Amino acid sequence: MKYEVVIIGSGPAGYTAALYAARAGLSPLVIAGPEPGGQLTRTSEVENFPGYPEGVLGGQLMDDLRRQAERFGTKVLYDVVEKVELRPFPKKLWLSGGETVEADAVIIATGSSPRWLGLEAEKRLYGAGVSACAVCDGYFFRGKPVAVVGGGDSACEEAMYLSRLCSEVHMLVRRDQMRASRIMQERVRATPNIHIHWNTITVDILGEQKVEGARVRHVLTGEETILPVQGFFVAIGHVPNTEIFRNQVALDAAGYILTEPKSTRTNIEGVFAAGDVQDPIYRQAVTAAGTGCMAALEAERWLMEQKHRKATLGVS
Ligand SMILES: Cc1cc2nc3c(=O)[nH]c(=O)nc-3n(C[C@H](O)[C@H](O)[C@H](O)COP(=O)(O)OP(=O)(O)OC[C@H]3O[C@@H](n4cnc5c(N)ncnc54)[C@H](O)[C@@H]3O)c2cc1C
Predict the structure, then answer these.
(1) ∠138-141-144 over CA atoms, to 5°?
(2) Does 120-234 carry CATH code 3.50.50.60?
(3) Which of 161, 199, 299, 301 has the smallest C-beta neighbourhood within 10 Å, fewest atoms?
(4) Hey, is 313 helix, strand or coil?
């Protein structure tokens, strides 16, 4: 099948791009990917997305965005893009379901994935106490002690969520300060069952079949302690989902897609990038949605220019 615009990813960036492209009459295709609805489906309450004065559940927000995009003619395909060829015209996408899709313009909105510490135990115990998603797995640790690694907004949010379910939350912070916003830090510090361990790294996660503890080290004194946690949540940031675009579009050193200043244009004609996949700084739903809007408007203008050029040259 061939489409004027194909959007890869169904997070806030993808669905907002779809909404604008659909209302411009472009009948876009959204390929939902491995996580339909994106990262917000992993969280509970979203309080900072404009238009929801009482807050909204992440899953509900994404459902609303999908329905709004579909209302104007967006088609959503529940498949994953495995390979792309972005340079020739039209652009080609190979999907894991076996289908091939062609597109005049492509909007990349594949977001990012959790970063891990790199310990062997993370792999061994993933799904058996090791997690990167408190909302998905916190329920299994009701009334039990857990650890959260990290000092950013994500780590604070994970810790806050777990504090309502678990007996104790040990926050392991590598430095003597956090990267998190002041309001998040204040919330964490004001929560009685969250214990912040400053200057602390994880040496190992203990247990064979399930997490039975974490061996941590104070980086200044070298002292090692075993925390008797049963859940171990890693919240140390994200890696942009750009593996399939390597050698196709220009990326920065961390793998984020490079876009022109004040634009979503990449270095490839007709390829635009929106949301967390091109944003190592803000990484918020509303900024993802904002750049999704920009990408659709830019894609629409680019398509118009192509049509105009072809008409001028008399090419069909
Ligand atoms: C626990 C948690 C809580 C958060 N809370 C908030 C909050 O309260 N407020 C806020 O503003 N932000 C919050 N965020 C951040 C917010 O979720 C992200 O900034 C936002 O979702 C980014 O949107 P995106 O569309 O760029 O990407 P994502 O939401 O990451 O979506 C990426 C999409 O790309 C798809 N995809 C990936 N690879 C492929 C592929 N190969 N083929 C096809 N599709 C693919 C995925 O399936 C997914 O649908 C939170 C994040 C987390 C993890």
Answers:
(1) 135
(2) yes
(3) 301
(4) helix
In 55-144, DSSP assigns E strands to 56-57, 75-77, 81-85, 91-95, 100-108, 112-114, 130-131
Q: How far is the CA of 16 from the centre of ligand 1 (A)?
A: 13
Tell me which residue of 11, 9, 8, 75 sits closest to 38, measured CA to CA. Answer: 11
For the chain, domain boundaries: 2-114+238-313, 120-234
Q: Is the Cβ atom of 16 under 6 angstroms away from ligand 1?
A: no
Spatial separation of the C-alpha atoms in residues 26 and 24, rounded to whole Å: 6
Give the global pTM.
0.79
120-234 shares the fold of 2-114+238-313: yes
Among candidate residues 227, 218, 220, 159, the one with its CA nearest the CA of residue 188 = 159
Nearest to 76 by CA among 31, 116, 120, 129: 31
Q: Which residues are catalytic?
A: 133, 136-137
Q: How far apart are CA 19 and CA 114, in angstroms?
A: 27
Between the CA of 196 and the centroid of ligand 1 the distance, in Å, is 27
| DSSP H helices in 50-152 | 58-71, 120-124, 134-137
Q: Which atom of ligand 1 is nearest to the CA of 82?
A: 41
Cα–Cα distance, 115 to 238 (Å, whole number): 5
Task: For ligand 1, say whether the CB of 107 is within 6 Å of any of its atoms.
Answer: no
**Which pLDDT score, from 0 to 100, does residue 136 have?**
67
Question: Is domain 2-114+238-313 in CATH 3.50.50.60, yes or no?
Answer: yes
